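Quick question: what would this complex look like in 3D?
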Amino acid sequence: MEPGERRLIEALRAGDESAFMTLTGEYGPMMLRVALMYVSTRAVAEEVVQEAWIGVLKGIGRFEGRSSLKTWIFRILTNTAKTRAQREGRSVPFSALASGEADGEAVDPDRFLGDGERFAGHWGAPPRRWGPEERLVSAEAQQVNDASIERLPPAQAAVITMRDVEGLDAEEVCNALDLTETNQRVLLHRARSKVRQALEEYMQ
Amino acid sequence: MRLDRELTCAQLVEVITDYLEGALAPVDVERVEEHLVFCDGCTTYLEQMRATVAMAGRLRAEDIPPELQERLLGTFREWRRL
């Protein structure tokens, strides 16, 4: 276990409020997003997050660090969310949710040359290079990126948030969300493709 | 050119995440990289996907809604009293 993480866990066990605030501040927003994949409203998602934290506090004394604290917290969250979704009578198995979001093309098919053409399947309208770096790092571009993640279907939003925004690795996300590697990658692919598309529209 | 035996651009954009994630078989990695050598469109596309990932990493995580943070703190204090 990493020393910083060990300190955090010990502080939490000792009832240190600021350690708790740090953790909830850091993971809370991502937990809400993940909870929203399973339950129908923001209010219920917030309750799920609260219930999950109760589970974390109850379990922290026995936490042995076989996985990272983050992965452990998210596993508690997804279990809590699933139970809650079942109670709501909204038990969409995540695999079904995920496969429902797996369809679609990364790029509008009209941008490739059609079957009759000599170079069928190759770019007819290729992407143009994105201008100066300054524009790409502007607050406005960041906002476009953020807004396009917000608009994604829930499973895609959760996966891209955990992978690309929060920097979890593929295995951690598969574990936390109970996804196969392939499913995780498909969702990530759909999500990134749409966000790229939104940025392309903005950069043009 | 042996385009009919090679990846099309439409195919490449669908395997690009597998490529970036290191999930392609070596033979397919070669096919992707061969394609990229002569295809500016796909090279740009790959750059843009990388830029997209990098940008998401720069997103400032949103703040937790204050009233939720407040509720969680209440939960925490209750737990501590036990």
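Answer marked as accepted. The interface with chain A takes residues 3, 8-11, 13-14, 16-18, 21, 23, 39-42, 44-45, 47-49, 51-53, 55-59, 61-65, 68-69, 71-73, 75-77, 79-80 of chain B (CB under 8 Å).
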